[in-house]
Amino acid sequence: MLAAFITGFVTLLTLILAVGAQNVFILRQGLLRSHVFSVCLFAAIADAILIWTGVISFSAISQIVPEISKFMTWAGAAFLISYGIIRFITAYKGIYDIRFGDDSSTLSKSLLALAGFTFLNPHVYLDTLGLIGAVSVQYDDALSKYAFATGASLGSLIFFFILGYGARILSPLMSSTVAWQILDIVIGITMLAIAASLLSN
Description:
78% of the residues lie in helices and 0% in strands. By secondary structure, the chain is mainly α. Helix 1 (2-16) packs across helix 8 and helix 5 (68-93) runs antiparallel to helix 9 (177-200).
């Protein structure tokens, strides 16, 4: 069981370390010190739900609803493109109220945006329902499967909180309008690149 737990933990970390829309959003929230705990917890819970779903019912969902992959791809790409354009517009205007911990976004708006980055991202389903689910198949007994899912869920929880609260270390570097413009441009490019990758695949 310990081996399964460690395998789940390491497998999740290797997947989640890639730069993605969800990670970039949490990093931005961390820099703003805006609803960091709630955002990190929401992301971790969402990941845990998807991880456990993948482990318990690998491949069942895609067989029941084969069209879900195409739908999630188009919906996710549209969401990413929209958010990317918003970041470009914000960078172009260059109007920033740089006061860490004083972001104007409400908790509900932040969680709604994060829900979009999480559940409208086909890569999330490929990683959790697909890859995590596929790796868990090597374990025959239920306890080992649950240990694997627990390890993966814990890896997600630790990563998101390190990302959210660790972003504060970068606060001194993000005290100028130019720095935020650069960050928004990078975020915008990242979102469009991810959207292009989804559509090309």
